[in-house]
Amino acid sequence: MKKLILPAVTLMLVACGGEPAEPAEAASGAATNIAAEAPAASGPFDVASVPLSEAELPAFPYIGAPEGFHLTGAKTLELERKYVFPHGATEAVEGRYHHGRVMVSDSGAEWNETLLLSRLDARIRALGGVRLFDGAMPQGARALLESESPRFAQDLYDPAPYRFRQYAVRTEKALIWVEIGYGYNAPMIDLTVLEQSLPAAE
Fold first, then answer.
1. Which partner for 133 in 37, 55, 71, 166 could form a disulfide, CB atoms 3.0-4.6 Å apart?
2. Average pLDDT, the chain
């Protein structure tokens, strides 16, 4: 089931009840706190909490399907908006966007999601990525999906009932968000990369 982005304006939701290297050009983007879903996320996400990557990054989108798997339906947009969930909060970020679905390459091979997740995790960490979230979509984001029907969600298999693993890779110029949508009732995962440009250091 396909689902459901918006311009660069602040959104706020008040919770009730308390592979070879070549740097890509960063697109403009901003992070906006929408809702705190976990005690650790008491305010806007601190970009500086993600260590600067010391890796030599390949060209955008930085990561693809590992050996034994392939990416299908890949698309790249120069500007898109997406929700991310650092430490359980929900934030809207925007920038250069890439999405595709990772499936097993050999149609006769057995689907092994555990193996795929492990290989992707290793690749992302090798780029300097830090895992910031792993779990079901926070309630704040679910509410926004229903009320705002953002365009990015149309790329996802079915965002609400499944699990998401999100990472951030920080460079001097950008924060690169990598999201894996998994746990589907299908032999595939969603792989999304969004490159959010950062303000120049003063």
1. 166
2. 83
